[in-house]
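Much of our argument rests on the idea that a fold can be written as discrete symbols. In the encoding step, the backbone of a single protein was reduced to a row of integers, each denoting a local shape. We regard such an encoding as a compact summary of how the chain folds. The record that follows shows the chain in one-letter code together with its fold in token form:
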Amino acid sequence: MDSTIVLILLQDGALNGAIYALLGLALVLVFVVTRVIFIPQGEFVAFGALTLAFMVNGKIPGTVDLLLIVGALVFLVELLAAWRVRSWRGLPKTLLWTVALPVALYLVAPLIVSKNTPFWIDVLFSMVLVVPLGPMIYRLVFQPVAEASVLVLLIIAVAVHFVLTGLALVFFGAEGWRTPPFMSGDVHLGPVTWSAQTFFVLGTCVALIFALWLFFGKTLYGRALRATAVNRRGARLVGISTSLSGTLTFTMAAAIGALSGMLIAPVTTIYYDTGFLIGLKGFVAAIFGGMVSYPIAAAGALFIGILEAFSSFWASAYKEVIVFTLIIPVLMWRSFGARHTDDDE
């Protein structure tokens, strides 16, 4: 192996590691705020990539119909909850984002979806279609059992993963898709030619991580999420709604997952079930950070991406085994310094 091959593998590893870093950050964010190990995070990767692929090819994505169905279910759940307590105050806002928004997107989709539509409009419309699914899933599945144990929430998350994978097969089919790159062209750095798409992905990841840092450090909602992550019971005592925190967290996780799928779709063929494997690698990165540390999770994701690239060169048939085997020594290392804590501590 000469230096040129090493640099090429480092390029591939950095590209994949950046995507895993975003997913790892989303998983850590969801866990520290809601205690949910969000296994379906990878499904949002597939939904984002496939929705964009359908739009680029001039086809109305199945996400349009899926959003209508899930939104109607959420509204029915909210309507039943309001009827039980005889309080209808929050129904107009619920009607707006669970029924009016999906219906509006359903009506607008035929006007936007076309092979001649600018790429950036396809990206924005795909995000608008996929992101609302995050808070809707939280309201349907996780909010009613928000006080359950971490194990119960994990089992529910696994069930949601299988449901979303089946829905992806129904609404998108079994065919694999790719999308055009966000940036075309090459950048020559020494003996290696780097694609402009690689720099775009790296730049987007850095910008998103910086935006998250500003959000958590400088905004009221960000500080509320930090307070919920530190102590759920204390957050409730000072008037912070843990339900609102969960909704906002799942919205951000869905946005990060959908954007990650769009970033990786130009270099990897995406199928209905591809997101699960990508999400698992983000989960390994989150394990590096103990499901609580953002910087360590990001560093772990970069290491995983580079290890995967070199493993694919030396032993491509075992690259997945090598990556997932990392969980064992990391968990052993974490267990040595672990101490039991209650969920609300």
About this structure: The longest strand covers residues 186-189. Strands lie at 186-189, 192-195.
